[in-house]
């Protein structure tokens, strides 16, 4: 009997080179508390499986469909958990964040649900649908140039002026814990089907989603490797894992995966991911477009570019699914209609 092909290239940081775990990094108990806070507010999204897709791939592909979450992406989970965790008197003064769009929408919706004001700093080139939706949830939007201005500095200044609390998009313990509820659900949903997962693939920008998911999977599905997935040019977590240190992206890099364009891993998130991740998988924009078309054709779902990187890694063989069961987080579906039309047309 032939031995199975290797799953994927692994990157394990030797224990002596691990960065110290950041103060406040959430553990499984924090993720379980987050699950209680968001219960009844966030959607428990399905873990989708299509026999025709499995037949093509030669293995079991299970997609965690976070485009079906409130606001169209996973970000509502961490945002709601963070706002709900604030003391009432602090919450009443409002919340502030900076985001390319999905965290913006998630925080705006969470703030609206709890009746508190939200101010969002967004890049001028954010997808129109994300800007419109953020405003639709009642948030005030302030624009900045992502290539010449610091969103963090603008956010800090506005928070000081308004007296609001900054809820960072990924480097925030309660945000990470909220995103980790996806990992709890994946483990539970797979177990309910009698599926032993061979790997979990998760998109990474600043690393909050994969930090939370990997923490939950380590507790609920021990031994299942978790990989971060990134667009070429913005593979800072993958390269940071290889270097055992924070590595920045080239400022000249460009990608249409607008949700994943963080310049470097988060200070908290990387200390978690350095311990939890089996490695990183990198895909091109063209491969992501192919994955978006595959998801639409076979799963009948709309996946935005940043949400499709994990699926792209499977389809291109960067992780070997043959004879295996792999869960992929498709993190959102907030893509401009014109761009999605062009992707479907193969433009």
UniProtKB/TrEMBL annotation:
Residues 42-332 form the Tryptophan synthase beta chain-like PALP domain. GO terms for biological process: D-serine biosynthetic process. Pfam families: PALP (PF00291). The keyword Lyase applies. InterPro entries: Ser/Thr_deHydtase_PyrdxlP-BS (IPR000634), TrpB-like_PALP (IPR001926), TrpB-like_PALP_sf (IPR036052). The keyword Disulfide bond does not apply. One of its GO terms (molecular function) is L-serine ammonia-lyase activity. This is L-threonine ammonia-lyase. It comes from Stella humosa.
């Amino acid at each position: 009997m032939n031995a199975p092909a290797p799953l994927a290239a692994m990157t394990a940081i030797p224990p002596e080179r691990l960065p110290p775990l950041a103060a406040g990094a959430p553990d499984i108990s924090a993720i379980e508390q987050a699950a209680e806070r968001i219960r009844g507010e966030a959607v428990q999204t399905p873990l989708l499986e299509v026999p025709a897709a499995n037949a093509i791939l030669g293995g079991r592909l299970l997609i965690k469909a976070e485009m079906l979450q409130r606001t169209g992406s996973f970000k509502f989970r961490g945002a709601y958990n963070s706002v709900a965790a604030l003391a009432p008197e602090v919450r009443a003064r409002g919340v502030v964040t900076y985001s390319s769009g999905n965290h913006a929408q998630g925080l705006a919706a969470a703030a609206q649900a709890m009746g508190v004001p939200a101010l969002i700093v967004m890049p001028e080139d954010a997808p129109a649908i994300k800007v419109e939706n953020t405003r639709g949830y009642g948030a005030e939007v302030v624009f900045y140039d992502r290539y010449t201005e610091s969103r963090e500095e603008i956010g800090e200044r506005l928070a000081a002026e308004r007296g609001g609390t900054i809820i960072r998009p990924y480097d925030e313990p309660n945000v990470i814990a909220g995103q980790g509820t996806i990992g709890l659900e994946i483990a539970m949903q797979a177990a309910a089907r009698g599926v032993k997962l061979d790997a979990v693939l998760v998109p990474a920008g600043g690393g909050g989603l994969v930090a939370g998911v990997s923490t939950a999977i380590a507790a609920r599905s021990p031994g299942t490797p978790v990989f971060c997935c990134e667009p070429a040019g913005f593979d800072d977590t993958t390269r940071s894992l290889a270097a055992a240190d924070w590595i920045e992206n080239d400022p000249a890099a460009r990608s249409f995966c607008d949700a994943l364009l963080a310049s470097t891993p988060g200070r908290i998130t990387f200390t978690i991911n350095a311990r939890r991740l089996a490695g990183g998988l990198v895909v091109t924009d063209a491969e992501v477009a192919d994955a978006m078309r595959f998801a639409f054709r076979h799963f009948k779902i709309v996946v935005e570019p940043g949400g499709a990187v994990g699926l792209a890694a499977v389809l291109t063989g960067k992780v070997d699914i043959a004879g295996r069961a792999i869960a992929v987080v498709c993190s959102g579906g907030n893509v401009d209609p014109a761009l999605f039309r062009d992707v479907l047309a193969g433009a």
